[in-house]
Amino acid sequence: MKLLILNGPNLNMLGIREPDIYGRQTYRELEEYIRKEAQALGCEVEIRQSNHEGDLVDWIQEALGRFDGIVINPAAYTHTSVAILDALRAVRLPAAEVHLSDVDAREPFRRVSYAGLACRKTFQGHGFAGYRMAMEFLCGEV
Ligand code: DQA
What integer pLDDT is reported at residue 108 of this predicted model? Predict the structure, then answer.
C-alpha cells in the first residue's frame, strides 16, 4: 500500500501561521507525525508540499500507476481549484481530503470544496490526526 500525501499552499508555514487556528506544531512535525503513523499502519508514504497549484496537478497526474491512493489537503486551493478536482477525477485513484481546521465552522467561502467532490471521504477539524484517519480509511478501501 503506497500513499501519496499532498499538502497545498501555506501549510509549510504551520507553527507560524494563525496558531490559534492551526496550532503551534510545525510542518516538519506534521511530516514526522505522518511518517510515524504510516509506519504503524504498515503503509508506505511519500509526502509533498507546494504553494503552486500546477505542482499539485502534476503530482496527482504522476501518481497514476505509482501510488494506490492519495491523501490531499489542498489548503486554499480546496475552495478554488477546478484543476485539482479534474486531475483527481482523471487518475481515479482513491482519495481522501484532510483539513486541519473545521472548515465548515469558519468563513462561508471555506464551505465549498472542489477537490472534495473527487474524494471518498473528508476529515476536518481533527488537526494532525486527520491525516492518520485518512490513511487508515484508504488502507481499508484499497
Ligand atoms: C486548511 C483550510 C483551508 O481553508 C485553508 O485555506 C488552509 C488550510 C486546513 O487544513 O484547515 O490553508 O486546508
Answer: 97
Cell of 103: 472548515
- How many structural domains is the chain composed of? 1
Q: Provide the pLDDT confidence category of residue 7 given band limits of 50, 70 and 90.
A: very high
- Check which CATH number belongs to the domain holding 128 and give it: 3.40.50.9100
Q: Which residues contact 108 (CB under 8 A, 6 or more apart)?
A: none
The boundaries of the domain holding residue 82 are: 2-141
User: Three-class SS of residue 6?
Assistant: strand
Best residue among 10, 20, 51, 78 to mutate for probing ligand 1's pocket (most ligand atoms within 8 Å of CB) is 78
pTM of the model: 0.97
**Alpha carbon of 100 to ligand 1 centroid (Å):** 7
Tens of pLDDT, residues 45-60: 999 999 999 999 999 9
Cβ neighbourhood burial of 38 (10 Å; 0-12, 13-18, 19+): buried
User: How far from 7 is each of 17, 122, 136, CA to CA, in Å?
Assistant: 15, 14, 18
Q: List residues bridging with 46 in a β-sheet.
A: 4
